[in-house]
Design brief:
The structure is a single chain. The termini are close together. The protein has 13 helices and no strands. Helix 6 packs antiparallel against helix 7, helix 10 packs across helix 11 (213-250) and helix 12 (256-265) packs antiparallel against helix 13 (269-297). The chain has two domains: 14-71, no CATH class; 92-297, MetI-like (MetI-like fold), CATH 1.10.3720. The protein has 304 residues and is mainly alpha-helical.
């Protein structure tokens, strides 16, 4: 509990860094008034918005005002949706979390099973095929794979819908695309971890005491080999959220990623800020959960 409270106290630090970066980028990309109103705005509209955004104040005061609004949950009003930006993002968040959870689950399960199989049949045909597929998958862009899946299963075979979020069938192709984005890493890391654990002395001792190969695998090998895999989950969460943005755009999935891409093209700055904040918060909390899971499955880890 002490470790958990300590980590929760550290959560604002990375969020503050992200918010500061967003503030600096917004100032470097041009005049916020021009971004909000466009080139057809009248001088009166520009003066009114400049006063509303407090852009006449010194830059440090602008940042403090910007930070104060965020602390109160005020991310501004969406220009496109005419609603609070955080409310717009929160409505799209369940779709993104659903896609990320499904993709991560399938990638984790299939990756661990594939890595175990490759390690058990080391230097044999299954190991060669799984490793070759993993290396090939790492070099395959997710948007290209998504388009291929749409072409094959939606257009030619007419088995699945091309886009949208209507029913469970609509989630198959986006989930497969997002899972393929992470699956190769899980296969390779699990294979390496299992092979390293199988060379440990405690496993030789267990086998000498009469422990069978199946029991040795589940009792001794996997509990010690899963720790790097869980660490990989935390490291890949950022890539997973980035992959979700591409996947949602390809499959017209109504999530935060697609919303942010549309907001960038529409110059809807409040939605972009709220979306970046939500993505950063999700990654920080998920990494905290990964640390707790690591301590639960590996008693050698002592949380302080």
């Amino acid at each position: 509990m002490g470790y958990l409270l300590h980590r929760l106290l550290l959560v604002p630090a990375p969020l503050l860094i992200v918010i500061t970066f967003v503030f600096v980028v917004l100032r470097l990309t041009g005049d916020p008034v021009a971004i909000y109103l466009g080139q057809d705005a009248t001088p009166e509209q520009e003066a009114l918005l400049r006063a509303e955004l407090r852009l006449d104040d010194p830059l440090p005061m602008q940042f403090l005002s910007f930070l104060g609004d965020l602390l109160q949950g005020d991310f501004g009003t969406s220009i496109q949706h005419r609603a609070p930006a955080m409310q717009v993002v929160a409505e799209r968040l369940p779709a993104t979390l659903e896609l990320v959870a499904l993709g991560l689950t399938f990638a984790l399960v299939l990756g661990v099973l594939g890595g175990i199989a490759a390690a058990l049949w080391r230097d044999r045909l299954p190991d060669f095929l799984l490793t070759a597929l993993a290396v090939t998958g790492q070099s395959m862009p997710s948007f290209w794979l998504g388009i291929l899946l749409i072409q094959l299963f939606a257009l030619e075979l007419d088995w699945l819908p091309t886009s949208g979020r209507e029913d469970w069938q609509s989630a198959i192709l986006p989930t497969a695309t997002l899972a393929a984005f992470l699956l190769p890493n899980f296969v390779l890391v699990t294979r390496a971890a299992v092979l390293e654990t199988m060379r440990e002395q405690f496993l030789a001792t267990a086998r000498a005491r009469g422990v069978g190969p199946v029991r040795a695998l589940f009792r001794h090998v996997l509990p010690n080999a899963l720790n790097p895999v869980v660490s990989l989950v935390g490291l890949q969460l950022g890539r997973l959220m980035g992959g979700a943005v591409v996947t949602e755009t390809v499959f017209a999935w109504p999530g935060v990623g697609r919303l942010m891409v549309a907001a960038i093209f529409q110059r809807d700055v409040p939605v972009v800020i709220a979306g970046v904040f939500i993505v950063a918060l999700t990654i920080v909390l998920a990494n905290l959960l990964v640390d707790l899971v690591q301590a639960a499955i590996d008693p050698r880890i002592r949380l302080r």
